[in-house]
Amino acid sequence: MNNNNELPLSQREGALTEQQLREFYQDGFIGPFDSPLSAEVIDEFHKVLWEKIDGKPENPLYGRFSVRDTHLLEEDVSKLITDPRVSVKLEQILGENLTLWRSKLFHKRPQDAAIEWHQEWGAFNGEEIGNDKPSLKPASDVGPDDYWNLTIWFALHDVPVELGAMQFIRGSYRHRYPIDMIPMVESAFWQDPFLDIQDKFQLVELCKSSKLILDIDSSKFLEGVDIEKTSFEELKRHIYMCFADLKAAITLDFPIQDTDLVTMPMKKGQYVIFPERTMHRSVANTSDQHRLAINFRVTRSDTLIYPSRLDGDMIDGSNLDISKHRNVLVSGNLIDIRNVY
Questions:
Q1: Rounded CA gap, 162 and 112, in Å?
Q2: pLDDT for the residue 3
Q3: Shared domain check, 21 and 107
Q4: Domain count, the chain
Q5: What is the pLDDT averaged over residues 323-333?
Q6: 103 in helix, strand or coil?
Q7: Residues forming beta bridges with residue 299, ordered by sequence position
Q8: Which run of H or E residues covers position 105?
Q9: Are residues 13 and 121 in the same domain?
């Protein structure tokens, strides 16, 4: 692999074949592929990343619990995507100058419901939780039908269908599906926040520390509530109604041809590549086991990342303070120097 980067992309180890590239452009996703890293390395990553989920510790990047950007805390995890046998595939699709700007852990508890159909057209503006603050501003040469971000979704252990496998709709990245803003508790991303909570004291702590629903500040939900005189069930109902007052996105119903629906169980260490414009979801976890995966989001290095920070606004569309965020060059050169901060 010493001279791998001196070869044309198509001749490098791990490169997509012409047939695989055709499948990607036809379907809007390609995979699963086996990680070039060893099973022992994947197991170690799983162990380290599970610690970021278990107990919901504070993420030092964001000052509260968050499953975002753990690759900046555990830098070895970036090897999942920066290994040239993986990144060459991204270069073939998106170009040779690429930046890793976000990662996110995806945890499904036993019996967690499906995360329903959704797509992200490219701004990553937080519309899924009712916001509109773009995280990405593409370069001027990007056309309206072009995408400028790729997602790489890694299974950190075997993910059979019953554990909450990914599903995709072939060709859906060419069409922007309509959404509606509805009460958050009815949205595509709603997950029962009370599933593992045993008593009202635990509930109060999680609510006040904003650990019930990702990216939602619930710290003030219990202001004015007499906690001592309020029962566990009454508190749950009150908090539920606070979430119901917030708006979030749902994809309106659309027809799905059986031949276009692809369910993708994956083995430990396998990954799939897709632009977020591809309609996708994860099915319910009907098992008694936890599911943990991580995705990485990579954009062209001439994309302006978190443009609002240039105006002094450091709160992103997911309600996180990005003051400590940074980007990682995956391949090629950094084109937009404003992405160094």
A1: 11
A2: 59
A3: yes
A4: 2
A5: 98
A6: strand
A7: 99, 149
A8: strand 98-108
A9: yes
